[in-house]
Amino acid sequence: MARLIDGKQLSAQVLVEVATEVQQLKAEHGITPALAVVLVGDDPASQVYVRNKVLRAEEAGIRSIEHRLEADTDQQTLNAVVDQLNKDPEVHGILVQLPLPKQLDEAQIIAAINPAKDVDGFHPLSVGALASGQPSLVPCTPLGCMIMLQQIHNDLSGKHAVVIGRSNIVGKPMAALLLQANCTVTTVHSHTQNIEALCRQADIVVAAVGRPELVKADWIKTGATVIDVGINAVEVDGRRKLVGDVDFASVEPVAEAITPVPGGVGPMTIACLMKNTLTAARAQLA
Ligand code: GUN
């Protein structure tokens, strides 16, 4: 039986640490870290994410500010909201919930966020800093995955890590963080030949492709650590259910450690957003 890496428990621990440091920041500098979340439109999944972010912020003693804009908002209006938040000294972190409605240019709005407040770590300056080995604000999901991996491995040095997926939000920054931790990193994706054979060589597999239960037991080396970033809604016997990118039932007996879905990476992402908001608020003290 694999060791279960419990994201609910670990994220609660991270939140307690953040809350303690938030209180210190308040006591020593009179500053309450504040996170602004901008949500455009009424995508139901995004609404759930944003609600969870606001709840966790409260738990950590972080002030949260919500900006809800209509689905037909234009670029200029969104830019004006971001610009106002950029300039507000009482706002330390800015998150524009993705995906944005089709008429809006995501890359442009990400680049418009003040990099000091870029708690998502998506700004080109944050991406460049991570790629050149000087991480500042690091994307929350990969950061959460690294904290999970550190529960299992004291030293990641020399481990072969295979990252499945190459998104800007997870796959690419995940590979950069693993490289920074001295792993040998292979990124595989939809054009990769022999994905299974490459995965079978891995000490660590991080699956982030959004394909339900893609990763099977025969992709996994005995004793590997498996991190499942996928959250896919599927119907089983007429009932909606969340599954990861990993076929948990078959992989679990083969792996040394594995994250469940739900209750794995998901809660870690939000805890890391609070961690980043604290980091950003501290860095803005000067
Ligand atoms: N949508 C899905 N994941 C994320 C995330 O990490 N940040 C933002 N801003 N939007 C998302």
UniProtKB/TrEMBL annotation:
Key word Acyltransferase present: no
User: What superkingdom does the record give?
Assistant: Bacteria
Q: What's a Pfam family in this record?
A: THF_DHG_CYH_C
E.C. number: 1.5.1.5, 3.5.4.9
* Chain ranges of the Tetrahydrofolate dehydrogenase/cyclohydrolase catalytic domain: 5-120
Q: Where does NADP(+) bind?
A: G165, R166, S167, I231
The answer, when asked if Methyltransferase is one of the entry's keywords, is no
Per UniProt, residues of the Tetrahydrofolate dehydrogenase/cyclohydrolase NAD(P)-binding domain are 139-284
One annotated GO molecular function: methylenetetrahydrofolate dehydrogenase (NADP+) activity
InterPro entries according to UniProt: Aminoacid_DH-like_N_sf, NAD(P)-bd_dom_sf, THF_DH/CycHdrlase, THF_DH/CycHdrlase_cat_dom, THF_DH/CycHdrlase_CS, THF_DH/CycHdrlase_NAD-bd_dom
Ordered alphabetically, the record's keywords are: Amino-acid biosynthesis, Histidine biosynthesis, Hydrolase, Methionine biosynthesis, Multifunctional enzyme, NADP, One-carbon metabolism, Oxidoreductase, Purine biosynthesis
This enzyme catalyses: (6R)-5,10-methylene-5,6,7,8-tetrahydrofolate + NADP(+) = (6R)-5,10-methenyltetrahydrofolate + NADPH; (6R)-5,10-methenyltetrahydrofolate + H2O = (6R)-10-formyltetrahydrofolate + H(+)
GO cellular component entries: cytosol
Pathway annotation: One-carbon metabolism; tetrahydrofolate interconversion
The record's Gene Ontology biological-process terms are:
L-histidine biosynthetic process; methionine biosynthetic process; purine nucleotide biosynthetic process; tetrahydrofolate interconversion
Supply the NCBIfam families for this chain.
PRK10792.1, PRK14186.1, PRK14188.1
**Similarity comment: family membership:** Belongs to the tetrahydrofolate dehydrogenase/cyclohydrolase family.
Matches recorded under HAMAP family:
THF_DHG_CYH
Q: Its quaternary structure? A: Homodimer.
What's the stated role of this polypeptide? Catalyzes the oxidation of 5,10-methylenetetrahydrofolate to 5,10-methenyltetrahydrofolate and then the hydrolysis of 5,10-methenyltetrahydrofolate to 10-formyltetrahydrofolate.
Protein name according to UniProt: Bifunctional protein FolD
Q: What is the lineage of its organism?
A: Bacteria, Pseudomonadati, Pseudomonadota, Gammaproteobacteria, Oceanospirillales
Gene assigned in the entry: folD
